[in-house]
Amino acid sequence: MDKEGRVAAIYKGHVPLSTLLDDVALLSKPEIEARDAAVPFPGRWASDLFPPQAIRLAESFARAGNPSLRKRYLKDYLLRFESEETRLYLGRLLLDENNLEQAVRVFAGISATTENEADYHRSAGILLLKYNQIRPARNHLRAALSVYKNNPDFRFNLGIAEAGSGNLVESLNHFRACVRMKPTDAVAHFQLGNALQATGKGHDAVTHYRKSLQVRPGWMFPANNLAWLLSTHPDSELRNGEEAVKLITPIIKADGGKNHTTLSTLAAALAETGDFKGAIETTTRALHYAQSVGANDAGLRAALSNYRNGKAFRGK
């Protein structure tokens, strides 16, 4: 079959894509020899006559009515050549088809340094974040920051990625930017509270947990974290055991009273009010449920020892 026949056959799926790649993107040895023989002057050519143009060829499949062949060709191409531009293009095709698992693998191989591709980096970062690929997600989102810095949802996602990578100061900056642009975002206030608490800024964390609950009353996560701070913070002016009990009690009723985390918070709140008997009983229940799900119970045991000695639990 001559070259034109092979090119026609590829659109019908009869010829391996590698054959077409050799024909179009690369020159075979006989073709190189024939080309050199046609040159009127001796010496080497400065470059190949037909350098690979993967995206252009991939689009030709779509124009010929065979868009599915684009992916096959691009994957074959990437086995031979590393091209971030081509990888970005293939990843976006997979995203458009909602083929998330393959898209994750494709985007994870990009170095996140490609210029003028902010939309691709944003898509890659959010997708990788969804699949818990935290550090690659952070790198892609950072690459898109200059374009999306005024988008609160983008700043929120980058804040999550930075926090997950251990960069708490950076995460604080992004969460602060998010709540500044979107002050009624309960989740952003909650995550900002978490970042503040993790960096030792308990007073500020309380403020944002309260704002989160103002927007979304009764939400378990900020209610639990706020009650924990009110029960265990080293600053006596911040602690309020009675309020903590009121916050966490309805949460425990709603979750069926079998969540060792919320039970632990209730125990700390009871101890702060001086009810050590209730704190001991509640912590014993929390230990039972923690062990039933294989959770680490070292913190609960340390708290229980405190309560048995008539001491409230104190955080850092």
Brief summary:
This protein is mostly helical. The chain has helices at residues 3-10, 17-24, 29-38, 54-63, 68-80, 84-96, 100-108, 118-130, 134-148, 152-164, 168-181, 186-198, 202-215, 220-232, 241-254, 260-272, 276-292, 298-308.
Question: How is the secondary structure organized here?
Answer:
Blueprint: H1 3-10, H2 17-24, H3 29-38, H4 54-63, H5 68-80, H6 84-96, H7 100-108, H8 118-130, H9 134-148, H10 152-164, H11 168-181, H12 186-198, H13 202-215, H14 220-232, H15 241-254, H16 260-272, H17 276-292, H18 298-308
Helix pairs in contact: 1-2, 4-5, 5-6, 6-7, 6-8, 7-8, 8-9, 8-10, 9-10, 10-11, 11-12, 12-13, 13-14, 14-15, 14-16, 15-16, 16-17, 17-18
Can you describe what's shown?
- The protein folds into four domains: 1-78, no CATH class; 82-148, Alpha Horseshoe (Serine Threonine Protein Phosphatase 5, Tetratricopeptide repeat); 154-217, Serine Threonine Protein Phosphatase 5, Tetratricopeptide repeat (Alpha Horseshoe), CATH 1.25.40; 219-316, Alpha Horseshoe (Serine Threonine Protein Phosphatase 5, Tetratricopeptide repeat).
- The protein is 70% helix and 0% strand.
- It contains 18 helices and no strands.
- The N and C termini lie far apart (76 Å).
- Residues 1-27 and 38-51 have low confidence and may be disordered.
What structural keywords apply?
mainly alpha, 316 residues, Serine Threonine Protein Phosphatase 5, Tetratricopeptide repeat, disordered N terminus
- Pairing-aware structural class of the strands and helices? mainly alpha
Helix-strand string: HHHHHHHHHHHHHHHHHH
Q: Can you give the helix content as a percent range?
A: 55-70%
Give the name of the CATH architecture of the largest domain: Alpha Horseshoe
What Rg do the Cα atoms give? Answer: 30 Å
Mean pLDDT: 83
Say what the CATH topology of the largest domain is. Answer: Serine Threonine Protein Phosphatase 5, Tetratricopeptide repeat
Strand content: under 5%
Residue stretches low in confidence (pLDDT < 50, at least 5 long) are 1-27, 38-51
Counting structural domains, the number is 4
The largest sheet, given as strand count, sense and whether it forms a barrel, is: none
Using the alpha-carbon principal axes, give the shape: elongated
